[in-house]
Specification:
The chain crosses the membrane at residues 21-45. By secondary structure, this protein is of the alpha/beta class. The protein is 43% helix and 14% strand.
Length: 369
């Protein structure tokens, strides 16, 4: 009798697990279909309103002068032996000083850290990389090449190539996700972790599944699972959607922030108008659902989490929830009025908060600015 009950219990557990997995992927593909329908309506409406302009966009042939600004640092390249990939990075500050490594988000590249490169090069060796699939770094064609483990290994390889075994790691958005993961898997290589507008990956997955409002804000995750169509939607009307991410009222930098100049915007258009550039960036999303949940979660480094009050993509409640996974000092700063593009929107506030954390590095309170 006991054996029958055990078998029945085991069967029930397995069935429940299969139902949960089926429900999980049904949600993903169902939402993907819904987002596709919405995108098709937008495309149809654009064709009606601007039939001649909708499918016009151009590759920017010449980089704007701001990308070659010598005050930001020196453009360098490294080919990693293990992966065979070549990475581009911009570096400033004296070699031998503590390494401060910056990881950008989507849709950005090394240039998003320009204000921080200038600020911290006096006391650090500052390095802002183009992550794989972005900017002048190599763009692997396979979606599998953008798995979490490969992205984390890229950071390890670059730190070691630069001649360091530890760094102050700074990440925003997708760069924040990789920074969290790197700190989880290589705690001995992270002196201090600084994350901007990105929750711990486990916090994000748990929260999004329980809060439809966050799931709605993350709808682009599902849309980006499609092949080629998202690239088209980001390109039409000469990259109007891409520009809108930084400039629109709903998602862009606010009136009190530091707006992107026309030249800054051209820098982004130059980077993402290149052949294959959008596909490389979108491939990060095309692996995310198969990479969660995480098998490891604890972060052993001191952590500074900077969060924008006006983030259009992430709900603020996730910021405080990150505390659960941090086994060291944790400091959370919520910046009022700031958009998702925090280090560009409010560079002075961000730089001051980072300096404070680097100099002191302790505290468990939540501050508001």
């Amino acid at each position: 009798m006991a054996r029958v009950l055990n078998n029945l219990l085991l069967f029930t557990i397995r069935l429940t697990l299969k139902i949960r997995v089926l429900g999980y992927w049904s949600l993903i593909y169902g939402y993907c279909a819904l987002c596709t329908a919405v995108a098709l309506l937008k495309l149809w409406w654009s064709i009606i309103l601007r039939p001649s302009a909708t499918f016009q966009w151009g590759i920017r042939e010449t980089p704007p002068a701001c990308l070659n600004d010598t005050s930001l640092g020196t453009h360098c390249y490294v080919r990693i032996k293990e992966s065979g990939l070549r990475f581009h990075y911009v570096a400033a500050g004296e070699r031998g000083k503590p390494l401060m490594l910056f990881l950008h988000g989507f849709p950005e590249f090394w240039f998003s850290w320009r204000h921080q490169l200038r600020e911290f090069k006096s006391e650090f060796r500052v390095v802002a990389i183009d992550m794989r699939g972005y900017g002048e770094s190599d763009l692997p064609s396979s979606t599998e090449s953008y798995r979490f483990d490969y992205l984390v290994t890229d950071v390890k390889d670059i730190v070691e190539y630069l001649g360091y075994n530890r760094c102050h790691l700074v990440g925003h958005d997708w760069g924040g996700t990789i920074a969290w993961l790197f700190a989880i898997h290589y705690p001995e290589m992270v002196t201090k972790l600084i994350v901007l507008n990105c929750p711990h990956p486990s916090v994000f997955s748990d929260y999004a599944l329980r809060h439809p409002s966050q799931l709605l804000k993350s709808s682009y995750f599902f849309f980006f699972q499609l092949s080629r169509f998202p690239e088209l939607m980001l390109s039409i009307n000469d990259f109007k959607a891409l520009k809108g991410l930084f400039t629109s009222r709903s998602t862009g930098i606010g009136r009190k922030g530091r707006w992107l100049t026309a030249e800054d915007m051209e820098a982004y258009l130059y980077a993402f108008s290149q052949p294959g550039a959008l596909t490389g960036a979108l491939n990060y999303y095309r692996n995310v659902f198969s990479s969660l949940p995480l098998s490891q979660n604890d972060v052993m480094s001191p952590v500074l989490l900077l969060w924008s009050e006006r983030d259009a993509f992430l709900e603020q409640e996730m910021a405080e929830a990150c505390r659960v996974y941090i086994r060291n000092h944790f400091r959370l700063n919520i910046i009022s009025g700031a958009s998702h593009w925090l280090q560009q929107d409010q560079p002075d506030i961000v730089n001051t908060l980072i300096w404070t954390f680097l100099k002191e590095g302790e505290g468990r309170k939540t501050y508001r600015n």
